Each structure stands twice: as C-alpha cells, then as structure tokens.
Fold this protein.
Amino acid sequence: MRTYAVIKTGGKQYKVAIGEKLKVEQIPADVDSQIVLEEVLMVADGEQVVVGAPLVAGATVTATVVSHGRGDKIRIFKMRRRKHYQKHQGHRQNFTEIRIDAISK
C-alpha cells in the first residue's frame, strides 16, 4: 500500500500521495520553492490510518511549486425572458500546480 494523506488547502480537500501533481487554489510562493502544508486531516500508511479531530497533530505534507497558471474560461450568461435583460460575463480561476515530495506523521 502507498502512503497517502488528505489535506485541506484553499477551502477544498485533496487526497495526495508522494510524487503526485495537483492543481490547487493559488498559493503565494515562487516556482521551484518548497512549501509545507500543515492542515492534514488524515494520514494512511499501509494498514495504519490516523484520522485527526479535526487535524492530525504534528503531521505535515511537503510540496514543491511546479507552476502557476489560469484555468479555462467559464462563460456566464444571464437572461430574463421578455424583460430585455442579458448579461455576459467570463471568469478564469488562478491556480498553483504542486508536486508532493514527502508526507510526515
């Protein structure tokens, strides 16, 4: 079994394992810098599972910032029929791509 953890960042929860890359909400850090994610909700190492209440004490996840970017454009169109009202809007969410390097308990 692989070691994995459940972390919380940017208001969302992610299941991560060593070597994985994932896109999370934008983190103010330079590219190729190490970051430490301290909000660890669960750590599993084979048969041993540690669940926090709400966080696992002393557990951290170390990651490297791979890149920053912007997601695909989402188009928002609002319309009220028969009222001569139309509104067009677009949105592109910023993200940070990270690579998980280590999970410590």
Q: What stands out?
A: The first strand starts at residue 3 and ends at 9. DSSP finds no helices and ten strands in the chain. The chain has a mean pLDDT of 95. The beta strands are 3-9, 12-17, 21-25, 34-37, 40-45, 48-51, 60-70, 74-80, 85-91, 94-104.
